[in-house]
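Query structure, 355 tokens:
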């Protein structure tokens, strides 16, 4: 395999020499070893990532090495010193690679995390209808939620990042489709900020970017139920008033659960970087978080999925129900009524007129 060692005549732009005594590089070169334990991506996904990141200007240590170094750092959340020993390269080079690769992966955002086209909307709506188990929710085209990404105490304004679960974090708000692919992300707000406030300051809300007219997204009780500037349907407050409300909440939860699973898969894949709180500043932690969501989509689109662990599936719900807007309640009431309406009447009842 012609990888990141010197081939003067064929690839003059790649001038690094592969050190065959470095196990982390050797397992990539052999073409057989499973890369997921150390790099959290399958071999085919690593190859896909290298391919989409490649440009005519790649040089230095070689793109393959830089991708492997970056993925290993994400997968282990260890110090630059440990990574430098693992790859037998200077610590300063590891620092440069991690920051440079973060920018490169982030450049894929608009190609990887994007709102579906109008031609794709019906398929997504059908997917959420299957998830919910009811045709009444046939206009749902997304699920929204937020989660906390651990960070070290930032020093200045540390209290702003200290969340109600008693650790420092930044917020990640995401919307996903019926397959768990992220179609919108907004990250970087301090952990003490409520989900509803994060939403109100996101481009999704401010610019009314999604969903299209006539459709809605679903979210938990941490968000207000509304129809403008975006149509967002949340569950009824507990305790429920009647069976119609209970039935709606049950089917609503089935549709909404896909975002919790998407977060769970992402946290399981990158559990070290998400749960360990790496020694980076909040601004860079925001960039790394966005990169994790991008890589999540790259993996799913390449068929590289994994089962979320139980601890990664835990909800980051604030526990505070937001007041609903009247226009949002009307949408929810119509959906609840449609969900409880019989799809057909027994022959004996069809003989009567109903007003």
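Result returned for the query:
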């Amino acid at each position: 395999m012609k990888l990141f060692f010197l081939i003067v005549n064929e690839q003059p732009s790649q001038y690094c020499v592969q050190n065959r005594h470095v196990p982390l590089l050797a397992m990539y070169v052999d073409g057989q070893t499973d890369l997921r334990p150390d790099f959290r991506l399958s071999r085919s996904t690593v190859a896909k990532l290298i391919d989409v990141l490649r440009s005519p200007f790649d040089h230095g240590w070689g793109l393959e090495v830089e991708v492997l170094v970056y993925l290993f750092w994400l997968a282990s959340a260890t110090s630059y010193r440990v990574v430098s020993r693992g790859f037998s390269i200077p610590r300063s080079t590891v620092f440069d690679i991690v920051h440079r690769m973060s920018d490169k992966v982030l450049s894929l955002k608009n190609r990887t995390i994007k709102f579906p086209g109008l031609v794709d909307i019906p398929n997504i709506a059908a997917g959420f209808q299957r998830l919910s188990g009811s045709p009444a929710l046939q206009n749902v085209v997304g699920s929204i939620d937020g989660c906390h990404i651990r960070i070290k105490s930032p020093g200045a304004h540390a209290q702003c990042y200290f969340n109600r679960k008693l650790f420092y974090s930044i917020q990640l708000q995401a919307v996903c489709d019926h397959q768990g692919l992220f179609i919108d992300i907004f990250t970087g707000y301090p952990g003490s900020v409520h989900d509803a406030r994060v939403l109100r300051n996101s481009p999704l809300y401010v610019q009314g970017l999604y969903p299209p007219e006539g459709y809605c997204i679903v979210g938990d009780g941490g968000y207000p139920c509304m129809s403008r500037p975006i149509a967002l349907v949340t569950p009824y407050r507990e305790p429920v008033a009647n069976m119609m409300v209970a039935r709606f909440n049950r089917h609503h939860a089935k549709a909404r659960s896909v975002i919790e699973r998407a977060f769970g898969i992402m946290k399981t894949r990158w559990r070290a970087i998400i749960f360990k709180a790496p020694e980076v500043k909040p601004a860079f932690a925001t960039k790394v978080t966005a990169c994790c969501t991008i890589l999540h989509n790259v993996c799913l689109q390449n068929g590289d999925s994994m089962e979320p662990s139980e601890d990664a599936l835990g909800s980051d719900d604030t526990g505070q129900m937001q007041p609903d807007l009247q226009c949002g309640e009307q949408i929810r009431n119509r959906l609840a009524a449609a969900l409880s309406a019989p799809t057909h009447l027994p022959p004996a009842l069809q003989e009567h007129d109903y007003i």
